[in-house]
Design a protein that fits this description.
Elements: H1 3-9, E1 11-14, E2 22-25, H2 27-30, H3 33-47, E3 54-58, H4 61-73, E4 76-82, E5 90-96, E6 101-107, E7 116-124, H5 128-139, E8 143-152, H6 158-161, E9 167-168, E10 171-172
Parallel strand pairs: 3-4, 3-7, 7-8, 8-9, 8-10
Antiparallel strand pairs: 1-2, 4-6, 5-6
Helix pairs in contact: 3-4
Bound molecules: adenosine monophosphate.
């Protein structure tokens, strides 16, 4: 399965969730058995036999690829969630959005000290979400091996915000 085929399945939805945003809808990939497997396998092939112990996944679309990947790599799964969703003692990181701010949280006991962690989300835009998530992982003692996205919106320059981390994003706009 080529990356071109995966990219062709991403649906552009204009003005969602608000005017001026071109939303990259991955549900056509999710609902197609071959495409979904191919997307998960892109990450799995890259990290096979690399000793990834934990996969941290970002609320909510990161969960979709990251949980399948964790199963495949025989790694544990750690959710990074929007504030108010995690039940146990948590670290918090707030970051700026285009309008206002958002807060992500992570359980304080998510990782062993120095444990290798792969961070997964569906899409890199400005990088604020991934940077807040990376800070949470490090506060909880995890060591980030790489941050992976299915899609990167290169024109928003999220990579600059994540300088210092290894990134992988096969589908680019
Ligand atoms: P950012 O923090 O700006 O990198 O935004 C990344 C987060 O917002 C990811 O969790 C994405 O799922 C979501 N996101 C941002 N922009 C878009 C977009 N154009 N299409 C789909 N999801 C997006």
């Amino acid at each position: 399965m080529s990356i071109r085929k995966l990219k062709a399945a991403v649906r552009d939805v204009p003005d969602f969730p608000k005017p001026g945003i071109m939303f990259k809808d991955i549900t056509p990939i999710l609902k197609d058995p071959k495409l979904f497997r191919a997307a998960v396998d892109l990450f799995a092939k890259r990290h096979r036999d690399k000793g990834i112990r934990k996969i941290a996944v970002i609320d909510a679309r990161g969960f979709l690829f990251g949980s399948a990947l964790a199963y495949k790599l025989k790694a544990g799964l750690v959710p990074i969630r929007k504030k108010g969703k995690l039940p146990y003692q948590s670290f918090e990181e707030s970051y700026d959005l285009e309008y206002g701010s958002a807060t992500l949280t992570l359980h304080v006991d998510a990782f062993e000290p120095g444990e290798p962690v792969l961070l997964i989300d569906d899409l890199l835009a400005t990088g604020g979400t991934a940077l807040a998530s990376a800070k949470l992982i490090e506060r909880a003692g995890g060591k980030i091996v790489e941050i992976d996205f299915l899609i990167e919106l290169g024109f928003l320059n999220g990579r600059a915000k994540l300088a210092g981390y290894d990134l992988f994003a096969p589908i680019k706009y």
